[in-house]
Amino acid sequence: MFTVHRKEIEWGGRKLVLETGKIARQANGAVLVTYGDTTVLCTAVAAKAPKPGIDFFPLTVNYQEKAFAAGKIPGGFFKREGRPTEKETLVSRLIDRPIRPLFADGFRNETQVVCTVLSHDLENDPDIVAMVGASAALTISGIPFLGPIAAARVGYKNGQYVLNPTRDEVGDSDLDLVVAGTVEGVLMVESEAKELTEEVMLGAVMFGHTNFQPVINMIIDLAEDAAKEPWDLPEPAYDRKALKARLRETVGSDVEAAYTETVKQSRYEKVGAAKAKALETLAEEFDNQSIGFEFKELEADILRGAVLKTGRRIDGRDTKTVRPIVSEVGILPRAHGSALFTRGETQALVVTTLGTSQDEQIIDALEGEYREHFMLHYNFPPYSVGEAGRMGSPGRREIGHGKLAWRAIHPLLPKKEDFPYTLRVVSEVTESNGSSSMATVCGTSLSLMDAGAPLIRPVAGIAMGLIKEDHGFAVLSDILGDEDHLGDMDFKVAGTEVGVTALQMDIKITSITEEIMKIALGQAKDGRLHILGEMSKALTGAREGVNENAPRITVINIPKEKIRDVIGSGGKVIREIVEQTGAKIDIDDDGTVKVSAVDQKKSDAAIEWIKGIVAEPEMNVVYTGKVVKVVDFGAFVNFLGSRDGLVHISELAQQRVGKVSDVVSQGDSVKVKVIGFDDRGKVKLSMKQVDQATGEDLTKKAE
After folding, report:
1. Which residues are listed for Mg(2+) binding in this entry (predicted)?
2. Is residue 291 a contact partner of residue 279, using CB atoms and an 8 Å limit?
């Protein structure tokens, strides 16, 4: 019934298995990939024909994690998987980025790649497995995909690179880098690093590229046995050479003039006018879709040719100069920390809010539930590019850019025990013309320091571009939006003056060489150091103390056996402390207590209350307490929080007491001295001895 094809190799110390022909046979391509005990089913399907009038490639990648893969039942009311998690969105992007440039030119059929995690061994992350599987499924599908690609994760510890480190090994590593590419070169890089040098980062990329070559060969072997007949690509419905010539003749000079305009909105108006002229003039000879496609090619030719020929860019800069920068902090009076970072026509308003442990994000992942105390949310409203558009929940782009900035900042955060705050950073991109994610990195660094968060060092980021033709190439620092859209590379580097903390690279051509990456990293370092210098004009380090509007967190430690006393039965005691003082209280299992309040007096009151609960009574020490019960033989007094002791009738006053109620009543505030403990550990108290020591009359009833 099944014709199964199977390939396996040893890779990174574990067995990698590709299998096709048994599951999902109606898909154009389907491959079951297993690495260790992590298994992912990857499928590829494309429509037989493109939709009429479509002028882009409609590719969708869906990575999904099933709870059963880790033997779990989903949380929540419905007990089934819901909308994509942040990780699912990020891995979908991770797969999309290296495969998208490799589909044949002119292919416009709707294509969907679905990667479903079926088993997770909690050691091998499914993202690399899914990338390999997606490549294999496309390669055997017959869809015009010019792969295969492969991917690998690279760690770095004790000066050595580690291929496909496990989850535990990644936690101990100075680097978490994912690289994907073809036989010829690298197509995509995503990473987080602990201030590593450019040389180490480049070495990691090339280490990964070298070590995933056996996987590419494995996919090719599978395709030789199981690949379907390749699809025929339709010939263009028009004479491309003739249309290119007519466009150049009709609007070539107009487009060239438009790309000398340094102001983005003015440039777009002139480009739009040139396109409208082309559509009107050539309407009888060619259809609008063909004209629009070739017009974009004309734009690219003019922009790219000018840079390679003159070394000058749209806004007049050379290839290495960074646009003018203005950094401002403390611009929002009630925010805990705020910064406005402007670089040319790109601007990010970044705001930091400090919270307590109760504000941490709880994440229910396949690997288990964990808490995150640093959140970075990136928003890209349509007005930032002068457009009117739909406002809604964050899309894949917003989530991806936010995570990139998160990775850049994360290695420089102070240890939680040194700065016990939950950190939420929101970046509102208010203007955009190239690399708003790197503006977010710079703004986040300034905003956190403005809030008093003691970053180890300030962090900055820069986006690099590439224009590569047969006769040469140029690497561009601090790219504009047009240079991103019409160029061959988006290469983002973030870090400190010491080293790199995040590297993200996307290539729009088949691959780039080690030489180009080396030049880009060196040029990015110069640009990053320049940006850090400009940022230092606003703030060179974290402010002393947190903002006056932020909560003050005081950390104390109590014995573990006293945690129950502070919490009380059903949380009664801790609720009373919170209600009476207005402070927030978090208690960890190890006895660490965090007390937070904007008003220091509230915090001090809560701390004193807690200390009173956990303190042990000491002999001959005088305490203030409250009479909680009066009996014939004495009075019970509550002191040191919830602790009670007995003042025997003989210890109430200097003179003989005939009736306890003659001296004290329930609710009275009294001073008592610890005079001993009985056989059961109960505390013996005396009011008489306090009276003797102070010479004061403490036997009167409290008014």
Report:
1. 484, 490
2. yes
Q: Which two tokens stand for residue 381?
A: 């409203």
Judge whether 287 is annotated as a binding position.
Answer: no
Q: What CA–CA distance (Å, rounded) separates 546 from 450?
A: 8
Structure confidence by residue, pLDDT tens digits, 438-462: 999 999 999 999 999 999 999 999 9
Q: Cα–Cα distance between 405 and 634 in angstroms, integer?
A: 67
β-pairing verdict for 643-648 and 683-686: parallel
Q: Do the beta carbons of residue 128 and residue 215 sit within 8 Å? A: no
Residue 147: pLDDT band with limits 50, 70, 90? confident
For residue 251 the two structure tokens come to 């609007």
CA-based end-to-end distance of the chain: 94
Q: How far is CA 229 from CA 224, 226, 436, in A?
A: 11, 10, 43
Which ranges in 160-263 belong to alpha helices (H)? 167-171, 198-211, 213-226, 240-258
pTM of the full structure: 0.86
Neighbours of 272 (CB within 10 A): 11
Residues forming beta bridges with residue 29, ordered by sequence position: 44
Q: Which of 113, 111, 122, 119 is nearest to 92 (CA)?
A: 113
Identify whether the C-beta of residue 360 lies closer than 8 Å to the C-beta of residue 63: no
Q: What integer best gives the mean pLDDT of the chain?
A: 91
**Percentage, residues of the chain above pLDDT 70:** 98
Say whether 484 counts as a known binding-site residue.
yes
Please tell me the distance from the alpha carbon of residue 564 to that of residue 585, in angstroms, as a whole number.
14
Q: How far apart are CA 41 and CA 128, in angstroms?
A: 13
State the Rg of the chain over Cα.
Answer: 34
Indicate the residue type of 251.
V
Number of CB atoms found within 10 A of residue 121's CB = 17
Contacts of 594 (CB under 8 A, 6+ apart): 356, 357, 420, 553, 554, 555, 585, 586, 587, 588
Beta-bridged to residue 557, according to DSSP, are 592
- pLDDT digit string, tens, across residues 104-115: 988 999 999 999
Are 528 and 501 contacting, i.e. CB atoms less than 8 angstroms apart? no
Do 476 and 491 contact (CB within 8 A), yes or no?
Answer: no
SS3 call for 356: coil
C-alpha closest to that of 307 among 260, 375, 352: 260
Q: What are 254's two structure tokens?
A: 């107009």
Other beta carbons within 10 angstroms of residue 605's beta carbon come to 18
The 3-state DSSP class for residue 111 equals: strand
Return the closest-CA partner of residue 395 out of 407, 406, 375, 380: 380
**What count of other Cβ atoms lies within 10 Å of the Cβ of residue 429?**
24
d(CA 205, CA 177): 8
State the number of CA atoms in the 13 A half-sphere of 52 facing the CB.
1
pLDDT for the residue numbered 77: 82
String of DSSP letters for 426-465: EEEEEE-SS-HHHHHHHHHHHHHHHTT---SS--EEEEEE
Q: What is the DSSP string of 630-653?
A: EETTEEEEEETTTEEEEEEGGGS-
